[in-house]
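[agent] plan:
  1. take the single chain provided in the ticket
  2. run structure prediction with default settings
  3. attach structure tokens to the ticket
  4. add a short note for the reviewer (M.T.)
[agent] executing step 1
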Amino acid sequence: MDRKTPFPNSHSLGNKGNLGASTLDSSLLSYPEFRRLLGQEIKRSERYCEYLSLLIIDFSSLVKKSPLSPKERVEVTINIGGRIKGSIRETDFVCPLGQGRLALMLAGTSREGAEYLASKLKESLLPLLSPEIAEGDGQIKAVVTSYPEEGNGKQNLLRFINSYLLLG
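[agent] step 2 finished; step 3 output follows
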């Protein structure tokens, strides 16, 4: 298999065309922009008594054990983030957190809704990865936190995201 094609089965989350692009997918947010929007969404959620959930998809144990270079691992993460962004609502946001980690901000979504999405994404991601990644001994993890269900304010949600940045 050509190492420049990390997604042999492009049907699971929709077809986005060329998957070898090394630039940040324009549908994904940078971390500073993600933090800025998270602050706005928390204020909106507080004001209108709406849910806000954060979901971390972590497949870093798979990509870090693969034969791919660090640059290729980042490309895989960005490409998967673009696929996920293409399959969720326009009001939701995706931000790469490094090699094999993505953060999703799900406005108006309860913890149960975020956990359901997490289970569907975990099922859909493995077939997207090339055999050299998918056959590794790692796993795909999903972690969810929600506001206001867990009493999380802005600082706790930012700590939640930052804890995954520090693992990278």
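[agent] step 4 note for reviewer: The chain has a mean pLDDT of 78.
[agent] ticket updated
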